[in-house]
Specification:
201 residues, alpha+beta, Structural Genomics Hypothetical 15.5 Kd Protein In mrcA-pckA Intergenic Region, Chain A, 2 domains, 5-stranded antiparallel β-sheet, 9 helices, globular
């Protein structure tokens, strides 16, 4: 599946947030990229604000337009608040769970670990980053992959208690999705209601 592979700092500066993780350039240049980024300030329309929020969510979770629209349609046909359900669907992606468990330092790295068959779900290797993890399922590191330096470095000093919907077992290098997260537990700075308004037009 295709994914965004362009300059990440440029995207982070566009939104003024480190959506791909810590960014040294963003901390020095916290204004939009381009020749007039630091001086020219345009007034954004309502549509522009809504579109910007959708793009931010797509870049944050590494999802392309068709996938994102399909997830929105699934969320809108589900019980509950559409925007919150959408974020829960994004959070339950396997690559995101691997990132939240601290097995990988970023979602991009988590996606690569999954694609390269280093991750298991309930003991079976799953190499689909968009795989939707269900409550009660156990996500682990494949036995022969447990010595990988990237995984050891990511787990070193990681605080597993910051996500109450996940449970971590250090001895087996595996975690369990206890339940879908509440909106207040999801740390991403995304105004999901704007995305709902955009797709509802």
């Amino acid at each position: 599946m295709a994914r965004y592979t362009g300059p990440k700092t440029r995207i982070a500066r566009k939104f003024g947030e480190p959506i791909f993780g810590a960014d040294k350039v963003l901390s020095k240049k916290n204004y939009p990229p381009g020749q007039h980024g630091n001086t020219h300030k345009r007034k954004t329309s309502e549509y522009g604000t809504q579109l910007r929020e959708k793009q931010k969510a797509k870049y944050t979770y590494g999802v392309l337009e068709r996938q994102f629209r399909n997830m929105f349609e699934k969320a809108s046909s589900s019980k509950g608040i559409t925007g919150e359900v959408l974020l829960q669907l994004l959070e339950s992606r396997l690559d995101n769970i691997v990132f939240r468990l601290g097995i990988a330092p970023s979602r991009a790295a988590a996606r690569q670990l999954v694609s390269h068959r280093h991750i298991t779900v309930d003991g079976d290797v799953v190499n689909i980053p968009s795989y939707s993890v269900k409550a009660g399922q156990i996500i682990g590191v494949r036995e022969k992959s447990k010595s990988l330096e990237v995984i050891a470095d990511a787990l070193s000093g990681f605080n597993h208690s910051k996500y109450p919907w996940l449970e971590w077992d250090q001895s087996s290098l595996s975690g369990k999705l206890l339940h879908l997260p509440e909106r207040t537990d999801i740390p991403e700075n995304i105004k999901e209601q704007l995305i709902v308004e955009l797709y509802s037009k």
